[in-house]
C-alpha cells in the first residue's frame, strides 16, 4: 500500500495577514520587556510602572562630575521617610496652637496623639517593608511614629531595588559617593515615600564653633579667658530668674549631638563654677557610642553652656552617627521620646548640601515636635551669609526650617563692672577656615522654605529668613569652657544656640510656676514680643556690624534677627500677655 501525504494550502492573502498579526504580537511583547527594563529591575511581583522620587539630588553636587561607579559591595544603612497624613489639618493645628484667640492655643499633642492623627498608617509601613524585604534588603527598625523605616543592604542591591546609580565623586580632595539619578519605586508606593536617606555620604554635618588659639588669653574671667556663667547671666539679664528660684529644676533640655564627650570635662566645669551635681544622661541612636572624637569640643561646649544658664535642668544628650540616616533618626528620636520641651542644636549643613526631600523629611519631624510643644534652637552657621563655604549666598539647615529658631551670632561687650554694654554682629573676613569670605554669624534667605506667617510684616522676602534671634558668638568675646582636657575660649553660633536653649528652659519654668503656658514652638511668641508694644524691652536691638553681606539695622535684619535676649524681660512680658489654660504646660491630653 502506498502511503500518500496530504498537502495543505492557504491563500496568499491569508498567509500575509497571519504574518502581520504575529509581527504585531512580537513587537508588543518586546516593547513590554523594554518598558519593564526602562522602568527598573525585574522584581517578580513588582512588575509594572515605577515613579521617580524627586528631591534626592543635592544642588551643591551639580558642579562636580561623577568619577566612576562606587564599590557595590559596601553596606548602606538607609532611612526611608514616609509622608505624613492629613498635612493640611496638621498645618491648621499648628496655626491654632500659636493663635492666642484659638481654643487650641498651646494645647499640645502627645506623641501618641500625633501618631494616631498624622503618622503613616500601619498598612503603608507594611507595604514598604514587604517590598524591600522581597527584594533582598533587611529591615532593621521602624520608628514608633511610623515616619522612618530603617533598612540595610549592599550598595549594588540598593541600586537595583530603587533603580538608582551611585557613583564616587571627588569633592575638592574628599572622595564621597552620591546618586547620579533620582531613585524610583513601584507607582503604587510613590505617594507613601518622601525620601530615602543614606544614598550619599557627601554631606557631613559640621559643629558651628570657632575656638581661639591655645595661647590667646582674654580679659574675661575664665581660667583661660572667656565669659564665665556669671558674666553671661548678667549680660543677658538671666540673674533675676535664678534669684526667683528658676534654675531649670524639673525641666529637661535635649541636646542633639553627632559625637561623644568626656564626663570628667563636664564635671570639672561644674565644679569650677559651683553649678551643682551633674544632671546629664545619654540616649544613643543607631549604634552610636559616647566615644569622644573630633567633635567632642562641640558636645562639651553645649553641655557646659546649658549648665551655665540652667544649672538645675536635666540634660538628655542624644548621640547619633554623623550621616544623613543618623541625623534624621536622632531628630526623630528626640521628637518621639518627647521628654524635653527645649532642644539645642549646634550641628548644621548648608541647605544646598541637602536635596529638597531631605529638608522636607526633617521638616515633618520638626512639625511633630512643634505640635507637641517642643522648641528647637539651632545655630545659624559660622560662615556669615555664605554658609556653603563658597561665594554663593546660602543659609544653614536646620536653622532655616520654619519650625526651628535660628540663632545668629554677635560680639558682646561688657562694661567694666560686668554689665551689658553693647553688641554688634559678629564677622571676621580675615579668618577663612570656614570659607573664602571669612567667618561670622549665619543669616540670609532660605532657598527652600517659603516665608512663615510669623514673619509676615517683619520681613518682605517671599522666603523664610534667618536668623530669628542672636547671642554672643565671636571667639574674641567667647565662652569659658573646659573641653578635651583643658580650659579654653570658644565662640560660634553653636555657643549661642545652647545659651538660648538654657534661657528658654528657665522661662518655661517661670511661666509654669505662674500657671501660664510655656513657650512651646517659640517662634510666634518671640515675634509677637517684637511686633507688639511690651512693658519691658525683650530684646537688645543689634544695629551695627554685618555678617559679611547683610548689614545690621534698627529692628529685624538678616544679620541679627530680632536681637539678643533680655531673659527676665521676656519672662515678664510673656507672663503678662499669655492666655493659659491654668495647667502650666498647655497639654490637654486630647486635642480635636
TrEMBL record:
Segments forming domain Peptidase S53: 226-577
PROSITE patterns linked to this entry: SEDOLISIN (PS51695), SUBTILASE_SER (PS00138)
Biased composition (Polar residues): 417-434, 447-464
Keywords from the UniProt entry: Calcium, Hydrolase, Metal-binding, Protease, Serine protease, Zymogen
One GO biological process term: proteolysis
Cofactor(s) the protein requires to work: Ca(2+)
Keyword Transit peptide on entry: no
Entry-linked InterPro entries: Peptidase_S8/S53_dom, Peptidase_S8/S53_dom_sf, Peptidase_S8_Ser-AS, S53_propep, Sedolisin_dom, Tripeptidyl-peptidase_I
GO molecular function annotation: metal ion binding; serine-type endopeptidase activity; tripeptidyl-peptidase activity
Ranges for region Disordered: 417-473
Coiled-coil region list: none
Protein name per its UniProtKB record: Pseudomonapepsin
